Amino acid sequence: MESILEVKDLSVYYGVIQALKGISFHVDKGEIVALIGANGAGKTTTLHTLSGLIQANAGEINYNGINLRKTPNHKIVGMGMAQVPEGRRVFAEMTVLQNLKMGAFTRSSKAEMEETLASIYKRFPRLEERKNQLAGTLSGGEQQMLAMGRALMSHPDIILMDEPSMGLSPIFVNEIFNIIEDVNKDGVTVLLVEQNAKKALSIANRAYVLETGTIVKEGDAKELLNDESIKKAYLGE
Amino acid sequence: MSFLTYLINGLSLGSIYAIIALGYTMVYGIAKMLNFAHGDFIMVGCYIIFSVSAALSGNSLVGIVIAVVLCTLLGITTEFIAYRPLRGAASPLAVLITAIGVSYLLENVALLIFGADIKSFTSVIKWEGLSFAGGELKIQGVTVITILVSLVILIALQLFINKTKQGQAMLAVAEDKGAATLMGINVNKTIMLTFAIGSALAAIAGALLCSAYPSLSPYTGAMPGIKAFVAAVLGGIGSVPGAMIGGLVLGIVEILSKTYISSQLSDAIVFGILVVVLLVKPTGILGKVIQEKV
Fold this sequence. Notes:
The complex is a heterodimer. Chain A is an alpha/beta fold.
């Protein structure tokens, strides 16, 4: 399998605290890779570093053979790597449609953008129904859909998802995970960060377990789902 | 009739405050900083028009164009040299104090070049104005032009913000710089553009202000700057229509209280209204309370 993303010995400090202690992992084209771990393990830090919102102190991030640490952060999405951030972070004062258009900020072809918009409305009919509503007035689940749609508007090759199930009702959680699988089937590679380890492992191909800035375990997602120590620590069984 | 005249004069002064307040409010909304040097850009613009007009024997239109260009460049440069390095500093006070420093710097450079004596500014508007009811109601040309210019600016800004990609990017940066970056928006470039627009507007405001009140000194921009800041807060800082409403309210109140109450007390009344509005509605007239939803 061809790697789309390869991370080597990535280290990140917040002041004197080391949030990531030299982690290495890779994501192959077409995969769903889950990054699971407890609060404060460094999952969000990892995704923020990949998207350039946080600067790494050491290590390499290779994306399609390009060193992302040397890429200005606003150029990353145009290269095909989008992120659905933790807490959705939709633009609350803008309408649903304006939010979606922001997702296509780096695209120049209006016709292609309209085509993607139509496909997103097809995937999330609720967004079309509410396209002129301010994003801040949507429910949490709808905002999550908007955040996903917004990321998809850039027509990404890989999408980084940070806690998409956080704070959602069980029905929405199932819906969101179904959508992630659908998006992946359409050819988008997914790096999924989740506290809901059971759900994440059930849709992922492979997974990494992050504990206080270090990867402590990696492997096939189905095997990790049956791993005794994982069951104890993350699946509550 | 005279009440109507005062009201229109108030509207005109308010329009100038509004144009200045737009610069304050946009920079605050997007860069989350109060640019206390903003008022002094007005003064810089006025001196440029004054100098160019003197050199070109009274051609003020060229002066305005040059003033707008130079003020825009000055705004971009100030942002780049003085404010950008402090973005993300531990305390937001750092950049605020720097802005006050820039304000003093500009005033003192003007003092050095032009001296402390008050220059008489020749109005850039030569038109006499309108006369109604057989000369009972006269409206000066500068008054009419000022109101029209501010209307045009407001409409143009609203169209720019709501209809263009760069304008939408500004809204996105105003709300969440990190999320905007994830969309591929260059946050630094967007902030720079905001300063450019604000500074260009300050130059235009300068031309109008000095045409209506033709005495120019290094401190010409200070008081209108503060009043425009009050207007921005009154209207709801960060809101473009809010700045417009705040400016108009302030201008009308100032002129009417000068006329009917006391010219000494007018500033006290203006600031008193700010206190009252903020007590009743701390976010200003159009300011929104942002609610977080889970």
